[in-house]
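Ticket 4471: requesting a sanity check on a complex prediction with fe (ii) ion. Repro inputs:
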Amino acid sequence: MRGLELVFFAILLVLATLQVAISHGEQPLSRIAVHNTRLRLSENADIRASPSILGLKGQNSEWVTLEYASPNPSNDDWIGVFSPADFSASTCNPDEGSKQSPPFLCTAPIKYQYANYSSPGYRKEGKGSLRLQLINQRSDFSFVLFSGGLANPKVVAVSNKVAFTNPNAPVYPRLAQGKMWNEMTVTWTSGYGINEAEPFVEWGRKDGDLMRSPAGTLTFNRNSMCGAPARTVGWRDPGFIHTSFLKELWPNSVGNDLVFSTYNGWRRRGYWRDREGEGGFKEGERYTYKLGHKLFNGTYVWSRVYQFRASPYPGQSSVQRVVIFGDMGKDEADGSNEYNNYQRGSLNTTKQLIEDLKNIDIVFHIGDICYANGYLSQWDQFTAQVEPIASTVPYMIASGNHERDWPGTGSFYGNSDSGGECGVLAETMFYVPAENRAKFWYSTDYGMFRFCIADTEHDWREGTEQYKFIEHCLASADRQKQPWLIFLAHRVLGYSSGTWYAEEGSFEEPMGRESLQKLWQKYKVDIAMYGHVHNYERTCPIYQNICTSKEKFYYKGILNGTIHVVAGGGGASLADFTPINTTWSYFKDHDYGFVKLTAFDHSNLLFEYKKSRDGKKRKAKISPIPKRQYNPVISQLETSSHGDHPLSRIAIHEATFALTPLAHVKASPSILGLTTGQNSEWVTIEYSTPSPSVDDWIGVFSPANFSASTCPSENPRVYPPLLCSAPIKFQYASYSSPQYKDTGKGSLKLQIINQRSDFSFALFTGGFLNPKLVAVSNKVVFSNPNAPAYPRLAQGKKWDEMTVTWTSGYGISEAEPFVEWGPKGGDPIRSPAGTLTFERSSMCGAPARTVGWRDPGYIHTSFLKELWPNTVYAYKLGHRLFNCTYVWSKEYQFKAPPYPGQDSVQRVVIFGDMGKGEVDGSSEYNDFQPGSLNTTKQLVQDLKNIDIVFHNGDICYANGYLSQWDQFTAQIEPIASSVPYMISSGNHERDWPGTGSFYGNMDSGGECGVLAQTMFYTPTENREKFWYSTDYGMFRFCIADTEHDWREGTEQYKFIEHCLASVDRQKQPWLIFLAHRVLGYSSDLSYAIEGSFEEPMGRESLQKLWQKYKVDIAMFGHVHNYERTCPIYQNVCTSKEKHHYKGTLNGTIHVAAGGAGASLSPFTTLQTAWSLYKDYDHGFVKLTAFDHSNLLFEYKKSRDGKVYDSFTISRDYRDILACTVDSCSSTTLAS
Ligand SMILES: [Fe+2]
Ligand SMILES: [Fe+2]
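Returned structure tokens:
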């Protein structure tokens, strides 16, 4: 029981905070403080209304003129219209805010206007007049003059009563499609209950026999309302709502009588061939109908006569025209109830539709119908406004927040937007062919269209009843007959650039497209349309944030995705767009308007957006072939290029000879590493040339004899200098010799590392693009080029195993590699090492396979097992040559990891995208990687306070220039030889087209993962699939591989779930998820422009796992900056705390830490709700677990090593067990 309560509480908590940042403005009537009303009747005041009897000609709407006078006029005097007229007659409803003193005003007026509205002299003269439009609302009316403004209303005078001749008359018919295609429903309102009269519709084919169909009757009482104002001042008797079902209609047209003519390439309906006398209908032939009530005294009350045209047979080919919009609301033609420019477009939209009505077949008003917001009288006024439309064509509605949302009533969102109506009004006032009208989802066909209408105010996510309905609706359309498949919903479940969706960091209603895009794609939905955002926007055809077509106006053939449209500008006050221009947004309009679809036939659809102010259009034509294919391979997802590799600037293949005996290059010393066997040394280069130029440069080649051999077949070259390899580094000749360009003499100091071969230095003229070889230096070589170098530690597959990986020039046919190691000061033992290498043919493409190729030597890994926890070990690398001599590295040390769950202070450093930098300033280009050396320096300085390092992808940006991996392992040697250096795979390690990487770009420069897999050890099952789990004391790390598919159902997804699920949180409370690309949340500009704030399909796929298994922190790289979010789930912050988290987090904290070295990437200017701290600088993250209950998170800048952002988590085990939204499996009531 306790568990259930917690779950329930937590769900309420989250959905309450989901309450969207939009209010749509207030209902104008809510400005009036009805309960504050007092009496200030004055003998000298007066108000009169005329005429006092309305609708003498049977009409249900009439203008009334008011004349009034006051002895103390004021600018905020106002006129309220009350109905029933006797507004103060009864005591107030005892339940609802009873009132002790007269005037017992417990009801809001049905409309109001300022007394000086059309009488500017009112304040001086105390006299005014006003014209107001009244509609028949089943009761009489009175008009009251108030002083004291809306906040402190005082009744000054009350008018005579005004009434329609028959207040109970049947009014405002609205048509809707029934559950069958040949059924039309007519719903109307009257004052006749079933005890007074029998309601029915008399109808038939025009000029044919009439018949009568009975109507059902619904009503409801105050207790059906869920809260105020609907239950209090907004309540008004709704009368009776009748619905009649007109069945077995003849379709709008018959057989093949259509004659087409061609106009501008468009097939257009020509004319009907006259089939009179053969039983066919003529074009436009309609049914007539009128509403009737047979009173029990035998008399009849009738409405006027209306007409409609029956719907076409599903699949029938005829021109079919559909109008779609949301959020129209109502407006008052007399200017009353105007507030804050609320709903000013509503009347324009209505007017345009009425004017074009003969060219409209069906209307969809997709939610936010009239914004009554609990003031029930407004529903009558809305049905009166749309009567000309709704009485003539089916007026289909969807449910919006303003119809449905109310806390604790089963709505998906717990806000108060419905003003207490909680859906009752929408469900009753309009018919929809839903199975259960409280669940507002339904399917309806119109000829060649299939519409699937979702209800965003009820849960639509996978596994729900509604999700099943949506799938069934989409799947069951026969596309050969009904090619035009349209998805409709109120809130934006797809894509919107509306400001608040952008600020939520989602560009949609969170959980919208994550949940439904698979269905839209699988069933090839053509267009998905939404309201809720009060503007217009159209996207490209899109799937998973990627445009599937670049065409903007004339779609031919396969769309490959769904076009998403926001058409929420029907009338309510407009909503702004974010300034971010996303890649998928094709057209935006901050204005009122609506959409019209015209299906000319099974192959041609016209989409038009029209402005409400003038009815003019913007169009796009779609002519898809009904059968589309879905290609699941993602080829062009690249979002960030990270800049080019500096070596790629050099046009190696263009190199030519310009050797001259007058030029020379000299390098010294010529033997390196003599003093201590070191693997890194500075070399001085001196050079001179008779014809210097500012773009002359020095290239460092290794092997030294770079032009000796013929080039391999991958990059054939037949003329000398046979330069087939890129230099390993380069520098301008004038870099440290500014006089070089004048004197032709210069010198340079370069740092050289031991890379298993000799070196030469070449002077080039002609810049990088037309390199001409001028002179080559003497050779330089390390005393032992094959020496074991650059050890890097990594955790093994077991907690008590440390792996040592290093590089040497000794193959297994020359020497036996091993590690000699043991507790510091103890007896050493020797552990053998395995050896890996690879060939040029292992590379997937250029430059790795061509100019970037360089012999990788041999990569050895030894497994040091059965370590004692936290013990310091010494080790050195050894090779036993077959002549029985030994080659040794220097001695290194490491501390063994703690036992999993062991309580000790444990310190973890995490960053991504560090890359390498050159201390000699070489290979510098475009400020690439300026932070890399700083980060390395900070870590080396703090090394005694670091236990393990995670380099979260984009390791060295070698990008296919293999020599750079040696240089990277040399750069990090001080770190990686002392603490485990764990890597994950990034795009720059893995991506290459056609090689199984999830992304088909060329970021790895042809390495396709081979270098990363070989140069570093990771405790994966399969090193090509770079996901793994590793424990460090109280930490469990689950490392994902974003370059392979992670989505639900994949091998990796199963691994992630298993890694998260299999940790004993009592022993290992700190659960960290790592991945290179941002699968969570990032404000990086590239992700913002994609409109996703993440790698598309990231959090959609994984957030359920993070939440269920209570991941504390999810960390990413790829974006070259730093950012931290609130604890978050499904785009909603689950805690407002920013620095000191205590107890349950309820969500996961997401961190982008990709600023370790590569050139920085900018943020969007948009401030999302979830982004707590951003830094456009180089830096890294450090986690310190003090014990099982206290974790410290620090972000440090690389430039100074100081902490710029931090937070703590303090909690105990019970807090991890606590249930939060979606984190506990269902509980049982059994005891
Ligand atoms: Fe809405
Ligand atoms: Fe990356």
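Notes from triage: The radius of gyration is 38 Å. Leaving this open until the requester confirms.
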